[in-house]
Structure formats: C-alpha cells, structure tokens
Automatic annotation (TrEMBL):
A GO BP annotation: amino acid transport
Molecular function via GO: transmembrane transporter activity
Pfam families found in the cross-reference section: BPD_transp_1
Name listed for the protein in its UniProt record: Amino acid ABC transporter permease
Length: 219
C-alpha cells in the first residue's frame, strides 16, 4: 500500500497528467489529419480513376503491411537524412497520420462500396453532379455503416501513441516509465494508473461513437 501512496504523489500524478495531455494532443491532431487524408484517399479509390486508383491502392497496401514502429523510425531518423526534419511531436504525428490514413482509407472505400449503386444513379438522374451526389446522398449513407469501424480504428490510434516512447515523445507511457525507472516500487502503481487513463480516454470515445450511432439511427 505504501508503494501506491508514494507513487501517487502530487508530483508524479502531475507528471503523468502532462504525459496524458501530450497523448491526447498527438491523438487529436493525428485523428483530424488521418480522417481528412484517409477520407480523400478512400473517395479517390472509390471513384475508380484508372491510374490514380491503382497508385493509391499500391501505396495504401504497402503502408498497411508495414509495422507502425518502422514508420515512426522512418519519420524521425530517416527523413532528416534527405533534409526533412521533424520535432519529436510532429514526427509522431506524421507517422501516425501516414499509418492511420491508409487504414481509414480502406474503411471509407468499403463504406462507399456498401451503398447500393442505384443511389448514385438516382442522384445523377435528378440532375445532381457527381460531386453533389457524393456529398448529399452517397457519403451520408456510407458514414452510418462506417462509424463502428472508424471509431475502433481511432481508438487503436490513441493506444498506438504509446509506441512513440521509442523516440522519447513525452507521452503517458514515457512519463510513467521515467517514474518507475527512478523507483522500482512504483512499477505496479504506474501500470495501474496507465491502464485507468487509457481506459477512460478510449471508453469515452466508444461512448461517443454509440451516441453518434443512436443519432444516425433516430435520424
């Protein structure tokens, strides 16, 4: 019990919260960028523009089959060799965005393909342009079916931020590691604290997804 009391001192908890805030910041920026880029890639592949779709498909398949850790190493250690240098924060964001964009693009493409083709034909027959039909008819219908998969992938992104500890990003796992590295008795308390913090953030996101699903269903 004394180990828990010592481990959960004000200084240590403040340090953990600082790490959690970095985790959330990296996650939010990566989620926004991944959502935009992944959505764009998914729509472009759905449009089935011959050369563009094939090139995007090849890139997406390559990225999806690479370990995220390798991409983190690449953005932080390899890119500076060709003159592209990121801070630790932006290296983590870039790596997560690259990886998650590829994952989300497949979710978007699958969701769009699940919409009956007749919906597109009906929209075009009323005089709407392809873009207007996509925005007002196809994408809204596809989004309903995509919500569970999208949220599941975004929750994975939040948990994947812990891999950035390898480049010393001062996120939750990194800060917890520093605390129990200075006090072996704090190992179990730190893992308990990390478990609770990751659970709260990820569970809150899952509840938000259920809220969105309910709203979409009622609508």
């Amino acid at each position: 019990m004394q180990n828990f009391i010592d481990a959960y001192s004000y200084v240590n908890l403040s340090f953990l919260m600082d790490g959690l805030m970095v985790t959330i910041q990296v996650s939010v920026v990566s989620i926004v960028l991944s959502f935009v880029i992944g959505g764009l890639l998914g729509v472009l592949r759905f449009a089935n523009i011959k050369v563009v779709s094939r090139v995007i498909g090849l890139i997406v398949d390559i990225i999806r089959n690479l370990p995220l850790l390798l991409i983190i190493f690449f953005t932080y250690f390899a890119l500076p060799q060709i003159g592209i240098k990121f801070s630790i924060f932006w290296a983590a964001v870039a790596a997560l965005t690259i990886f998650e964009s590829a994952m989300l693009s497949e979710i978007f493409r699958a969701g769009l393909n699940a919409v009956p083709k007749g919906q597109m034909e009906a929209g075009l027959s009323t005089g709407l342009t392809y873009r207007e039909t996509m925005l007002s008819i196809v994408i809204p219908q596809a989004f309903k079916s995509m919500i569970p998969a999208l949220v599941s992938q975004l929750i994975s992104l939040i948990k994947d931020t812990s891999l950035a500890v390898i480049i010393s990003l001062p996120e939750l796992t990194h800060n917890a590691k520093i605390i129990y590295g200075q006090n072996e008795g704090a190992i179990i308390p730190m893992f308990v604290a990390m478990t609770v913090m990751y659970f709260v953030v990820c569970y809150a996101l899952s509840l938000f997804s259920k809220y969105l699903e309910t709203k979409q269903y009622n609508y």
